[in-house]
Amino acid sequence: MSSIVEEILSRADIVEIISSYYPLKKAGKNYRTHCPFHPERNPSFTVSPEKQIFHCFGCGVGGNVINFIMLEEKVEWKEAVRILAEKLGISLKEWKGENTLYSLMEKASIVFRKFLLKPEGKSAFEYLEKRGVSLEISEKFKLGYAPPVNWLRELDDFSSQDLIKGGLALEREKEIYPYFRNRVIFPIFSLTGKIVAFGGRTLEEIEPKYLNSPDTPIFQKGRTLYGLNFTKQEMMKKKEAILVEGYMDFLSLFQEGYENICACLGTSLTENQALLISRYAEKVNLLFDPDEAGEKATLRAIEIFWKAGVMPRVVVLPQGYDPDSYVKERGKEGMDRVISQSEDGLEFYLSKLQKIEEGNLTRILEKCFQAWEEMKEIWRRDEFLEKSAHLLSLSLQTVKDMWVSYRKKRRFYLPNVQQLPPSSEIHLLSLLLNFPQERQNIISKIPIELISDSTIKGIIEKLGKIEEEINIPKFFEKLSEDEKRVLSGVLMKEIPHKDPLKEANDCIEKLKQREIGRLKVEISNLEKEGKWEKVVEILKRLDELKRRRV
Ligand SMILES: [Zn+2]
């Protein structure tokens, strides 16, 4: 772990940080407040000054101070570290490699901008003019131009490695070449407004028409949305977003006054991009090209947004228009009208699927169920079942029956996230955390394959790798989201312990008995089916288990 993170975790006081956002009330050893992450009447959001973690007994979120900032400020891990470093006055000099890339991007954008405004940028300038991009927008979004000549010379403060690492140069036979040539340049910004990459529109008749920077240490295409840094505030205010496909669509709508808009980077929508939008909006209007590719992208986007918990609507443009040409011809008024007439996502999805699946209702519903089974809000799924029954002219009972049989088919390989881990497994975990001197001893006795809860199993395995005393907030940095929820809950519960070794033995004995019971059932099933070879195999395992001493 980088020492910056260690320093932050040792210097930040979680109570102080959280109480700068929400009023905390003392409750015993801990502090309480109403959970900022789910609606509730009685406060169940708990902060422990002793353990330096938080946990909500209502919705289950939990973690260390970095995790709190991530949730509260709706930022990625790195940005949360940055915010905390700033609050604590810790300098981030160590992240120099990254800082170099950020300043390279900043410098490159200045170079591109300069070319656009010089005589050699005439064709690019005229292109933007023809597309109706105002000078104000061109400046705000730092549009630029990469000429056909070797412009890398303008960046000679940076090493060739940095130019390649930042995605601005390609290496061929030990020579480096510019990645973008004769293209209008659209800088791509991070959520905090730093330039992290570029998109380039060719001015020649070549493919690809649009070219994006490759992924770099500071840019992941699938986790970035164009323009969101400028529009997230408005999106949050309206709780509604507009999603378009490309840079030009974005710019012309933004220019017309749409400020709750963002664009995929010319590629199909990813789940991470949808989750990004879900931080700010509850509803999204999909405004894609009305051609076949656009329609496919729309169907896929609907499924992805359902999973992300954002309700999609589809704006249908008349044939022959794209969002850019439509808003230019009809103005904001015309665009407002088509947006207000947008079609409900489910209605659009079902009517398109009717055509694609040629009216095969089972296939249509299976596709829906696939998209709905991961929905977090169960009431919404019930609503969808009802609505789809209505739209497909089926009885609600028929659709519900199909849903139940679909679930049965899938149940065997779907993880059940709602189920609580068995209490003996929670108890074991609590022992491991509270008795560091017995930790390795207890871990060595636990038959890890008998731990049925995969999250607890994961935590125990990670604990097993730590020899020294556990620093709780630091340990959280090694955990997955599920592991953080479970562990913060176990830590806050303060399960009383008297005799750690005896309790550990009791828990392990329970795990053994449970497994023995399970194997017995399996044997009787196999006997009924006459699978004798398997029976012998399992009897052997049963015997081993019974003889194993705790
Ligand atoms: Zn909560």
Give a structural overview.
The protein is an alpha+beta fold. It has five domains: 3-88, Zinc finger, CHC2-typedomain (DNA Primase, Chain A); 96-219, DNA primase DNAg catalytic core, N-terminal domain, CATH 3.90.980; 223-336, Dna Topoisomerase Vi A Subunit, Chain: A, domain 2 (3-Layer(aba) Sandwich), CATH 3.40.1360; 357-411; 423-547. Helices cover 53% and strands 12% of the residues. It is globular, with a radius of gyration of 28 Å. The model is unreliable at 412-418 (pLDDT under 50). Zinc ion is lined by residues 35, 37-38, 45, 56, 58-59, 61.
The number of distinct structural domains comes to 5
Largest sheet: 5 strands, antiparallel
Query: Which percent bin holds the helix content?
Result: 40-55%
Mean pLDDT, to the nearest integer, reads: 90
Total helical elements: 24
Distance between the termini: 36 Å
Using the CA coordinates, give the radius of gyration: 28 Å
% residues in beta strands:
5-15%
Number of strands: 16
Shape: globular
* Bound small-molecule species: zinc ion
Indicate the structural class. alpha+beta
Strand line-up across the major sheet? 1-2-3-4-5
Q: Low-confidence stretches at least 5 residues in length (pLDDT < 50)? A: 412-418
